[in-house]
Amino acid sequence: MDLGIAGKRALVCASSKGLGLGCAEALAAEGVDLVMNARGSEALEASAQAIRDAYGVDVQTVAIDVTTQDGQAKLIEAAEGVDILVNNAGGPPPGMWSDWDREDFIKALDANMLTPIALMKALMPGMIDKGWGRVVNITSQSVRAPIAVLGLSNSARTGLTGYVAGTARQVAQYGVNINNLLPGIHATDRADALDGGVVKQKGITLDEARAERAATIPARRYGTRAEFGAACAFLCSQQAGFIVGQNLLADGGGTNLTM
Questions:
Q1: Strand partners of residue 138
Q2: How does pLDDT run along the chain (259 residues), one tens digit per residue?
Q3: How many CB atoms lie within 10 A of CB 145?
Q4: How far apart are CA 19 and CA 89, in angstroms?
Q5: How many whole angstroms from its chain centre is CA 155?
């Protein structure tokens, strides 16, 4: 299927590795030029060059911390006029309800709620002016079924989901579609960190922790960045023009819901 987005330009946040990189690769494969962002310049430049070599698209890199005001300003300047925005940020650390203080929640809100909102507010007016745009927010399956040890993520990402629910229905009339893509467990550094916590808690090996978690997923495996990226690219496509304000689970069936 031709997604009809060749020649478009996209900002993909936190795209030096993991799910963000999967989204960048899938968009590049469709002929989309990229602005890629991450905190670390070395991994970011390596990933960007690999995409240039593989797909022949233009890739601009911005190595900053997008949760800071200065970082946001630099990224917004570089991404001015983009047609597609993919918001993404690593999740806050796991823990118990009693572990977190106000500052922990502020950090989670800055990374996983307020930053994507700031980028949407800055970049969607240009999309509205052109009469076409796509925003995909990478959130988490926890916004549909909260995960007890991920209370910080549950809180911040659910707040973003509420913001998108209203905003998406305000801008759809201008050809700008906002949707959320909700990953379950994928083979990324985030999964390694969560599995590492199980290793310490239970005194088992990392392979055993992974096997335990995979057994809880109906697909009996972790997702891949490539298949996640393909789902993101579709939500950014011409064909997704009638999908507005939705929360698409990409979790191998791991979230036990009827709808």
A1: 181
A2: 899 999 999 999 999 999 999 999 999 999 999 999 999 999 999 999 999 999 999 999 999 999 999 999 999 999 999 999 999 998 888 888 888 999 999 999 999 999 999 999 999 999 999 999 999 999 999 999 988 988 999 999 999 999 999 999 999 999 999 999 999 999 988 888 888 888 888 999 989 999 999 999 999 999 999 999 999 999 999 999 999 999 999 999 999 888 6
A3: 15
A4: 10
A5: 16
Q: Which residue has the tokens 């905003």?
A: 167
DSSP letter (8 states) at residue 64 = S
Q: In what order do the strands lie in the sheet with 33-38?
A: 59-63, 33-38, 9-12, 84-87, 133-138, 176-183, 247-250
The three-point CA angle 147-149-151 to 5° equals 75
